[in-house]
Amino acid sequence: MVGAAVGLVVGVFVGSVVGAAVGLVVGVFAGSVVGAAVGLVVGVFVGSVVGATVGLVVGVFVGSVVGAAVGLVVGVFIGSVVGAVVGLIVGVGVGFVVGSAVSKGSAILIFFVMEFPK
Questions:
Q1: Residue 93: how many CB atoms within 10 A of its CB?
Q2: How far apart are CA 58 and CA 92, in angstroms?
Q3: What is the pTM of this model?
Q4: C-alpha span between 33 and 90 (Å, rounded)
Q5: Residue 65 has what pLDDT?
Q6: What was the pLDDT predicted at 26?
Q7: Which residues neighbour 1 within 8 Å (Cβ) at sequence distance 6 or greater?
Q8: Do 39 and 64 contact (CB within 8 A), yes or no?
Q9: Which residue has the higher pLDDT, 103 or 96?
Q10: I need a surface site. Which of 32, 38, 72, 105 has the fewest CB within 10 A?
């Protein structure tokens, strides 16, 4: 019971920290790549119709909006999946170690109490 509680707390903490870090990195990368590609395509198209200056402004704006949206969605999804997996692995491992130590400590305590009565 103690191992499960400790494993849950540690697993949730580690999973949230690792998930947030991974989600941030992946989200920023995916957002910048997709935003740059979409902004380039839209900017070149608009620039060829209206003019280079307008195409540049529209391309940068569309690219930043699309990149931010894609980066947010991808980052949150990947971060939550990675965080859950890492939290589960770490939580189970820590819970097992703590639970084993507590149960062995209880067994030793019970042995001494039974062997050396007052």
A1: 13
A2: 50
A3: 0.73
A4: 32
A5: 96
A6: 95
A7: 99
A8: yes
A9: 96
A10: 105
Question: H/E element holding 1?
Answer: none
Contact of 25 with 86, CB cutoff 8 Å: no
CA 8, 11, 14, 16 torsion: positive or negative?
A: negative
- Vertex 36 angle, CA 64 and 44, to 5°: 100
Q: Contact 74/26 with Cβ under 8 angstroms?
A: yes
Q: What is the CA radius of gyration of the chain?
A: 27
Q: In whole angstroms, what is the distance from residue 97 CA to residue 77 CA? A: 30
Specify the higher pLDDT residue, 58 or 99: 58
Report phi then psi at 51, rounded to 5: 155, 160
**Residue type (1 letter), 103:** S
Distance between CA 26 and CA 83 in Å, rounded? 13
